[in-house]
Amino acid sequence: KAGVTQTPRYLIKTRGQQVTLSCSPISGHRSVSWYQQTPGQGLQFLFEYFSETQRNKGNFPGRFSGRQFSNSRSEMNVSTLELGDSALYLCASRKDIANEKLFFGSGTQLSVL
Amino acid sequence: AQTVTQSQPEMSVQEAETVTLSCTYDTSESDYYLFWYKQPPSRQMILVIRQEAYKQQNATENRFSVNFQKAAKSFSLKISDSQLGDAAMYFCASTGGGGADGLTFGKGTHLIIQP
């Protein structure tokens, strides 16, 4: 069974641009969560999607948004990029919201110049 | 709000020895889960062990076990017979009932295995 797949692995953008990251969950998993990892703030929860609906959101500005498609694949978008958005963005999937076991991908490393 | 604290930024242990990583947490939830995740250089977070707060018995997974002290809000990870492949960042995490607000992570402990 394939694991959680995130694309691209690396991304370089400049301030003011926008970026879209993609995540394909494990087959059969209907929930996708996104986390931001930085050296200073550590790992922080961004949002979770389940059955194409955002279930909850962490403490991030509105520039961070996401969506989930009918096949459970998810995209995360960051608009008007700032230098502080440079981070590793991790996606995690789980079978459903009653299951606490998360499976993570290898992340997308975003660098904002 | 939930908080998770890992007070050891770095730990070192000789191969085949035992090491314990510390974690304390604070939550107002009555129903929650606690986790230890491992993040090797590949960056993928790998679940090491999981503990349900309402279970008294400490979780074990092969060489990995936890010491869960609910009253003290302490959740330490013991790694027995340390192996070179155990070298990684280890993160302690917690979630509330239903995981409504995602996982709250500690800052991590860098584990070094000395051959």
Overview of the structural elements:
The complex is a heterodimer of chains A (113) and B (115). Chain A is mainly beta and 113 residues long. Chain A has no helices and 11 strands. In chain A, strands 2, 4, 5, 6, 9, 10 and 11 form a 7-stranded mixed beta sheet that branches. In chain A, a hairpin with an 8-residue loop joins strand 9 (87-94) and strand 10. In chain B, strands 2, 5, 6, 10, 11 and 12 form a 6-stranded mixed beta sheet that branches. A 4-stranded antiparallel beta sheet of chain B has the order 3-9-8-7, with no helix packed on it. Chain B has a two-stranded antiparallel ribbon with strand order 1-4. Chain B is globular. Chains A and B meet through strand 5, strand 9 and strand 10 of A and strand 6, strand 10 and strand 11 of B.
Distance between the termini of chain B: 41 Å
Beta-strand content bin of chain B: over 45%
SSE order of chain B, one letter for each helix or strand: EEEEEEEEEEEE
Number of helices of chain A: 0
Mean pLDDT of chain B: 92
